[in-house]
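Weekly structure sync, notes
Attendees: PL (lead), two postdocs, one rotation student
Agenda item 3: pending single-chain targets
PL asked that the sequence for the first pending target be pasted directly into the notes so everyone works from the same version. It is reproduced below exactly as submitted, 237 residues in total.
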Amino acid sequence: SASYDQHFDMLNGGVGLMVMNDKAGEGTIATTNISGIYAYQLNINRKLSMRFGLQGTYVQKKLDWDKLTFGDMIDPRYGFVYETQEVRPKESRSFMDFSSGMIIYSSKVYGGVAVHHMTQPDEAFIVKGSSKLPMKITAHAGAMIPLAKGNEAFISPNILYQMQQDFQQLNLGLYVVKGPIVGGLWYRNQDAFILLIGIQKDQIKMGYSYDVTISRLGNATAGSHEISFQLQFHCKP
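Predicted structure, written out during the meeting:
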């Protein structure tokens, strides 16, 4: 995935572009997303602002039918030796997907709501209308609380809630910042703790996080590692 966004005064907001390609099941299903985004900024007063965002995404999904196996291909002795009698569908599917969101923020507190897949597009390859992409709702809030004068050190509590059809997830997090060093801990839905540490210096941000699984899944997995690098370019004032 890759993305770029920038604020433009003449648009009173920002525009962005996101591109993502994903291959699942050893390449059986390949998904490409190309998104255009616009966010409008409204300054309520000198300390409080709002942003409203709209995202339009072109989605293309491709199915590699030759990598699928079916029950009627199996011989009891020799395994997969027969041709399937399943009807080969159209192996490419394209559709538009729309999302929106808003956030209200000051220098110390922020909170917002986002709604993805507003039109619940149909992803089905075979039976039309049988695989609608459920709407996803995300709500989040946080604060930046100074621990000392000059804002050199502060703590930042955060909450994130997501809901999609029958799935719900609640994340609770806390960051501690001291100069260029950032440390944090997140707790996710009785499933995992996420430990992270990072450094921010001028235009460069680097971070490392580790997911510690605490559910029964932890007996079969060793958690996951993530390393991130971010570069912020200087822009005109």
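Discussion points:
- The mean pLDDT is 90.
- The chain is about 0% helix and 60% strand.
Action: rotation student to compare against the earlier draft before next sync.
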